């Protein structure tokens, strides 16, 4: 059986409450007595009706009060009114630009902090090159038992186009978690991988955003490298020579698709092979590139194009195995994959396949990616021709012109 606590129980609950309650009661009684005594004692001041006390000055007479003093007060009021009438709208007009100015200042601070991390704090620059132009990273290969095999150099892709092919969120994910089985470490404290807070990772992406090439600049870089790769221009050729060579590129030639699939420029940023051909990113030519030089790398390099790595194996007829038509295949490599979204006949995206023809950060603009539809159509034709024995071109494959025309209609 329970008894609800009554007021008496509460009061008696502790000595402190009891003393407190008593004090409050005494205080109230005291106040009432004080008020009553005061009211009784109050009277008009002696002589207050008759003359002013000597310490009080006489107030204005009516004449002065209604002319000079009144006018002065009104003038002051008018001036204040004008100040408010002018200043408030001015403030209001200036507010949007003040706000955007503040935003810009924040953005600049973020970019500066990101740059500081890129260059010094996390030394992304050591691998990805100054201003994200691409570079290479040392990597130690160990065998299945963890035994040392060799130290090699690994292509580190340019990051000055990374936001043309990936969303900001995808880039943050890569920075947070890194790329397992490659020299790219994870950096995110949230991911339990490294020292960087999510704010620092965002700042890094802000910095990367500030150094992105335009789609035109990126396409030009790819075209120039392609022209050199195809032997249409010499390395270090002049602008005019390159212009001419680029004109001569035949996108229907399977060699063009192959060269693009394996384009080495900018740390392999344009290449499909760096994710779809195992060992492609390992640099084997050149002195000192492999240490020890006589290391046996046959298990790690030399795999056929598209045989699979981070990205799936592409050999064995992408059309119609995974994509019903060439147009669908072209569309997929144009926009890339979205995490959790299905693609093709039975693919499910992870957001790791970049969109090469359409910047995923600008949803309302199409064809603003790092590669043109012509380039991607040539690559699609090449990728669809891959077999485990090498490329076998499909005589019925639509031409680049047909593919890109189809895309414009759709
Ligand atoms: C030790 C060298 C190294 C360092 C340091 C490094 N990276 Fe990387 N990073 C790489 C390599 C190598 C790859 C490519 C991995 C592969 O082949 O899949 C890569 C890939 C990436 C990618 C994916 C690019 C793409 O298109 O696939 C991003 C984004 C990236 N790094 C950002 C950064 C940032 C930001 C930092 C600094 C916080 C950083 N990296 C530091 C070596 C490095
Ligand atoms: C940064 C790594 C990366 C690069 C670079 C890349 N891919 Fe992929 N690709 C992937 C991944 C990962 C998938 C699997 C889908 C996913 O996880 O979203 C994929 C899937 C694909 C598929 C679907 C294959 C299937 O059977 O489901 C095709 C086709 C493809 N890529 C073609 C290309 C082409 C062509 C290029 C070059 C223009 C390219 N990829 C460049 C990572 C990459």
Helix content: 40-55%
Largest sheet: 4 strands, antiparallel
Low-confidence stretches: none
What structural category do the secondary elements indicate? alpha+beta
How many distinct helices?
A: 16
Verbal overview:
The protein is an alpha+beta fold. The chain is built from 16 helices and 8 strands. The strands form 3 sheets. Strands 1, 2, 3 and 4 form a 4-stranded antiparallel sheet that branches. It has a two-stranded antiparallel sheet with strand order 5-6. It has a two-stranded antiparallel sheet with strand order 7-8. It is elongated. It starts with 6 loop residues before the first helix and ends with a helix. The chain binds heme C (HEC) (2 copies). One heme C is lined by residues 272, 274-276, 310-312, 314, 318, 322, 329, 332-333, 337, 344, 347, 349-350, 352-354, 356, 379, 383.
Element layout with pairings:
Layout: H1 7-11, H2 15-41, H3 62-121, H4 124-128, E1 135-142, E2 148-156, H5 162-165, H6 168-177, H7 198-210, H8 215-229, H9 239-247, H10 254-261, H11 265-268, H12 273-276, E3 282-283, E4 290-291, H13 318-321, H14 326-335, E5 342-343, E6 347-348, H15 373-385, E7 386-387, E8 390-391, H16 400-409
Antiparallel strand pairs: 1-2, 2-3, 2-4, 5-6, 7-8
Helix pairs in contact: 3-7, 6-7, 8-9, 10-15, 14-15, 15-16
């Amino acid at each position: 059986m329970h008894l609800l606590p009554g007021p008496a129980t509460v009061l008696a609950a502790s000595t402190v409450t009891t003393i407190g309650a008593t004090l409050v009661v005494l205080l109230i009684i005291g106040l009432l007595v004080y008020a009553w005594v005061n009211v009784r004692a109050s009277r008009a001041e002696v002589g207050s009706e008759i003359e002013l006390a000597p310490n009080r000055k006489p107030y204005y007479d009516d004449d002065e009060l209604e002319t000079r003093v009144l006018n002065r007060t009104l003038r002051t009021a008018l001036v204040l009114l004008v100040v408010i009438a002018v200043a408030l709208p001015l403030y209001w007009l200036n507010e949007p630009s003040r706000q955007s100015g503040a935003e810009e200042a924040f953005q600049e601070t973020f970019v500066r902090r990101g740059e500081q991390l890129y260059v010094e704090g996390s030394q992304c620059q050591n691998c990805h090159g100054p201003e994200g132009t691409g570079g290479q990273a040392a990597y130690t290969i160990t065998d299945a038992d963890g035994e040392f095999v060799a130290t090699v150099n690994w292509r580190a892709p340019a990051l000055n186009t990374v936001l043309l092919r990936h969303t900001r969120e995808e880039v943050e994910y890569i920075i947070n978690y890194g790329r397992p089985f490659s020299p790219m470490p994870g950096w995110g404290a949230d991911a339990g991988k490294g020292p960087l807070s999510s704010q620092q990772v965002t700042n890094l992406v802000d910095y990367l955003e500030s150094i992105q090439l335009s789609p035109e600049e990126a396409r030009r870089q790819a075209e120039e490298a392609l022209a050199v790769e195809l032997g249409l221009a010499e390395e270090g050729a002049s602008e005019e020579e390159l212009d001419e060579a680029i004109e001569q590129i035949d996108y229907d030639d399977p060699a063009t698709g192959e060269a693009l699939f394996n384009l080495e420029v900018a740390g392999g940023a344009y290449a499909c092979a760096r994710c779809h051909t195992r060992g492609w990113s390992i640099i084997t030519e050149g002195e000192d590139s492999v240490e020890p030089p006589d290391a046996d790398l046959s298990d790690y390099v030399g795999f056929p194009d598209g045989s699979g790595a981070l990205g799936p194996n592409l050999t064995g007829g992408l059309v119609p195995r995974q994509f019903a038509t060439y147009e669908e295949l072209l569309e997929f490599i144009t926009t890339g994959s979205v995490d959790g979204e299905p693609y093709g006949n039975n693919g499910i995206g992870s957001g790791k396949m970049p969109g090469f023809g359409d910047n995923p950060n600008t949803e309302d603009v199409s064809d603003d990616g790092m590669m043109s539809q012509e380039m991607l159509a040539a690559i699609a034709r090449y990728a669809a021709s891959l077999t485990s024995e090498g490329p076998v071109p499909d005589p019925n494959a639509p031409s680049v012109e047909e593919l890109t025309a189809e895309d414009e209609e759709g």
